[in-house]
Amino acid sequence: MPDIRISKENFPGAIKQLMDRYRVFAPVKKGRFHEFALLQNVEQADLGFSNTLLSPKGLFHPQAERMFEYSLAREDPNAGILKEAQKDFSPRVILGIRPCDAKAFELDDANFNTESIKDPWWVQRRETTTMIGLACESPCSTCFCTSMGTGPFDTAGLDVLLVNIGEGYAARALTEKGTKVLEITSGCSSPAGDHLPLAERQQAAEQRIGTAFDPAAIAKKEMLELYNSPAWEEVQFACLNCGACTFVCPTCWCFDIQDEVCADKGDRLRLWDSCMFPLFTLHGSGHNPRSNKIQRVRQRFMHKLKYYQDKYNSGPACVGCGRCVQACPVNIDIRQVGQKMASPDCSCSI
Amino acid sequence: MSDWEPRIIAFLCNWCSYGAADLAGVSRFQYPPNIRVIRVPCSGRINPKFILAAFRHGVDGVWVSGCHPGDCHYIEGNFYARRKFALLKSQLEYTGIVEPGRLHFSWISSAEGTKFAETASHVVESVKAAGPAQHFVKKQAEVA
Amino acid sequence: MQQSYTESIREAAKRLLSEKRVEAVIGFRKGTIPFMNEPFLARTVEQADLLIWDGNCAMNLANYLPKRTGSVAITAKGCDSRSIVIHLLENQIKREQLYILGIPCRGMTDKRKIADNLNGREIIEVEETGEKLRVLGRDFEQSFERTEFLEENCAVCTHKNPVLCDELLGEPVEEQQIDRYEEIRKIEALPPEQKRLFFDELIQPCIRCYACRNACPACYCPTCFVDESKPQWVGKTTDPTDTRTFHFLRAFHVAGRCTDCGSCERACPVGIRVRLFTRKLEKEVKELYGYEAGVVQDERPPLDAFRPDDPEPFLG
Fold this sequence. Notes:
The complex is a heterotrimer. By secondary structure, chain A is of the alpha+beta class. Chain A has 2 domains: 4-63 and 87-207, no CATH class; 215-346, no CATH class. In chain A, 31% of the residues lie in helices and 20% in strands. Chain A has 12 helices and 12 strands. Chain A has helices spanning 11-21, 99-112, 120-127, 176-184, 199-207, 215-220, 223-227, 231-236, 244-248, 293-312, 323-327, 334-342, and strands spanning 4-7, 23-30, 33-38, 64-71, 83-84, 92-97, 129-134, 160-164, 168-173, 190-191, 255-262, 265-272. In chain A, the strands form 2 sheets. Chain A has an 8-stranded mixed β-sheet. A 4-stranded antiparallel β-sheet of chain A has the order 5-4-12-11, with no helix packed on it. The radius of gyration of chain A is 22 Å and the shape is globular. By secondary structure, chain B is of the alpha/beta class. Chain B has helices at 17-26, 48-56, 77-94, 113-130, and strands at 8-13, 35-40, 61-66, 103-107. In chain B, helix 1 (17-26) crosses helix 4 (113-130). The longest helix of chain B is centred in the middle third of the chain and has 18 residues, at 77-94. The termini of chain B are far apart. Chain C is of the alpha/beta class. Chain C folds into 2 domains: 1-116 and 151-178, no CATH class; 179-316, no CATH class. The interface between B and C is large, with 39 and 48 residues.
């Protein structure tokens, strides 16, 4: 499908057309920050943002989610039977997602959607969601997506790519879902003939992003050499093990499952967990293989930048969105840690 | 609304207040039946977590009673409790978690059966006026 | 003034390390993004040259002391030193292990206030000279008077000078007389329903990441009440009742131990003003028991002590 143009004046109308057919999630200003929220009206959508504070992973993998419910009432013939909680999987659109976050979901698929194991909630949500991405014109100083195998105009994981071209948006359909969505908004758009020349804009945006570190250099290294490096002693000192980094990260997927029972009703809940929490690896026996802070800090970076690469023969489990850099209360910077890991002997003196 | 009877948890210290409750019962003093007693060894055993847990479970009122300060069976338990209770009550009301009239404290010795019955009536009346507890109750996690 | 602290900290650190008076020095080194510094442990004289001090050294370094072995020097401003006193009182570290480098503090910068002033335009670099800030963005430059953009807790601080130290690295600064609890009183005056709504709205963005708890030097329990499961006092989801329970109890657990260092608010990734919980208790403790956390070294914390004539405002 050829590119289309949507003028500034027509854009709200296009959103309205989407809202008539789908549940639309878009960035909404909340206090100082933006977050992806279900639009109640068109005016709420605010695409003039750099990125949301929390990643949109909550739209596929909520912070807290009911998986099953059960009754424990003695007279209930269904007592003790886990019933899947009802969810809304009606079609939806995520409007304005950044390419880094969309790429992150592709990386998360390696965990939630495999040959042998499929998380039914994740998979259904992915299938019924159309992602309309918004290319980054002005990446932040904490962005390093280009070092992580993606970029401000990357199309991985997106169904449509929107580019702000001043007088409006250019929209490029990338998949069937994307084509369908653009057809729905055809009342508010005009065809732009052949592919619009967006390469210049892409180059300008990519040039604004500095090089962080080379994940390929980390992939080449011996795992044990990285694991046993004395550099971790220095990296781990400041860490508070607070979990802020894992909660804002779009590629962190770890969760805990807990049952909560009130009187004779029970819920099986899934909630975000963090490898930063000491309790994360606590065994029922009382043994904790990662009882020290240094073990947990090392684990996080090794998982994202080394183990994931080794296991899936692809890039790191990091998309360079920079949220952890901004959220960490003690300024532990993954770019610095990555550079250390990539340098010979992990010894670059940062 | 007219059918509703408040449910009130009473944490009573074993040596004084529980004894007072016993005495009130033996003396056949009348007081409303809305309190459920949880006996603790000393009012100093009361942890704020207990009171919060009671409200989370949906009780309408909580009443904590112990020995008179200076007469604690364990000498000092209620002295520590006194400080805890002061901070706890003021913080609960400040954050709006517990409306006025729901949380009560008293010092009742084991000889004060009448005082027990009177305080019980007062507590029940006060909680009745506050109405059924709605806001700080956890029945089911409000999640996606 | 802050500039010369960097020099004196480095000098002291190098001296202490080369004389083997301490095994390590806890301080800050320059951060990688504007308005942030990273807590840093210097073990060698070379590493000591990385230590700095400026208006972004807000995190309470006393957080790194509990259960530390060996001797360590630590840079401490007023609030940090009071947290160290609390740790000494609670046997989390021994006095002989510590060499406290006291820093009379002029207050830390509130990066969020500055970001608000710039209307969300991105800050690329910051230059701090004395009490002047020069903030540079991609296409703008703006100057700020640091004293007008201090962290909220610094703006009402009454203990800028360290209460305990082995070496004071500068001239003491003047303490201010100020009403610390004006905002608390405003909330106290609200009707009960409004209070509840106010706090519900305040903690609504909470994602239960526990950054506030972990940044707090007073929160060092090996098993936090949140992690207790037999029984489970508070659920771990973002259910509103659970979230209120968490913030309430955490503030209660630091009652009389909190020195209002502001690390909790600074650490919160979603910017919740959690100090509105802790400062109410600080006010009560002061008014009821005349106690201020960590100011006097041989007074037991208020919930670990009693007087026969303690007030009983809760009766009735």
